[in-house]
Amino acid sequence: DIQMTQSPSTLSASVGDRVTITCRASQSISGWLAWYQQKPGKAPNLLIYKASTLESGVPSRFSGSGSVTEFTLTISSLQPDDSATYYCQQYGTYPYTFGQGTKLEIK
Amino acid sequence: EVQLVQSGAEVKKPGESLQISCKGSGYSFTTNWIAWVRQMPGKGLEWMGIIYPDDSDTRYNPSFQGQVTISADKSISTAYLQWSGLKASDTAMYYCAKYSPLDAMDVWGQGTTVTVSS
């Protein structure tokens, strides 16, 4: 299985900060990488797919980049509503696998 | 509106069988994969498997193969996740999600809580 490793595991930042979360794959996944946001008690919500394509309706402060094995999710100006856990997922090779999650807290 | 509606919360005893469901609407259910994802209490997301309702082509995560059965009835736009003998370790929230290679898992069900306790 392809292992997906996110860093950091937890992150605390202030409103207006630029925040970056990294996801590394144990082998090449080309660009088949998605990012999801999950708030407590809610289903995950797709933010980014194909590494850098913003899902319809997602605020433009979210962006994704990367290729092969290293990917990043960036929030350009952190908002209070962004407090959540973020997961990356590779969907290029079965079984599709998630990262362990990054919990983002607002200071 | 594209949506997936899952069946309600379940409380079961170890060894019992269970089937939970996920009904799609507002899109072509037949030609979009449905994935199942487990989230154990306080833990991360685990991809269990995926089914293509048109021909029931199914792919399992080896970690779940033999532990659950994924199926679909395209005539009623519904996918299922089934256990034949529940264990306490099956206690979790289970999500279904619509999946396509172009769009990843873009629509999710609301989740079904399964509690297995004696």
The geometry of chain A reads as globular
Unreliable stretches of chain A (pLDDT < 50, length at least 5) are: none
Large-scale geometry of chain B: globular
**What is the mean pLDDT of chain A?**
97
Question: Averaged pLDDT of chain B, please?
Answer: 97
- Helical content of chain A stands at under 10%
Low-confidence stretches of chain B: none
Taken in chain order, the helices and strands of chain B follow as EEEEEEEEEEE
Say what oligomer this is: heterodimer
Number of helical regions of chain A: 0
Largest sheet of chain A: 7 strands, mixed
Record field, number of beta strands of chain A:
11
Rg value of chain A: 13 Å
Following the backbone from N to C, one meets helices and strands of chain A in this order, namely: EEEEEEEEEEE
Please provide a written account of the structure.
- The complex is a heterodimer of chains A (107) and B (118).
- With 107 residues, chain A is mainly beta.
- Chain A contains no helices and eleven strands.
- Chain A has strands at residues 4-7, 10-13, 19-25, 33-38, 45-49, 53-54, 62-67, 70-75, 84-90, 97-98, 102-106.
- In chain A, strands 2, 4, 5, 6, 9, 10 and 11 form a seven-stranded mixed β-sheet that branches.
- The N and C termini of chain A lie far apart (36 Å).
- Chain B has 118 residues and is mainly beta.
- In chain B, 0% of the residues lie in helices and 54% in strands.
- Chain B is built from no helices and eleven strands.
- Chain B has strands spanning 3-6, 10-12, 18-25, 33-39, 45-52, 57-60, 69-73, 78-83, 92-100, 104-108, 112-116.
- In chain B, strands 2, 4, 5, 6, 9, 10 and 11 form a seven-stranded mixed β-sheet that branches. Chain B has a four-stranded antiparallel β-sheet with strand order 1-3-8-7, with no helix packed on it.
- In chain B, β4 and β5 (45-52) form a beta hairpin.
- The model of chain B has no long low-confidence stretch (mean pLDDT 97).
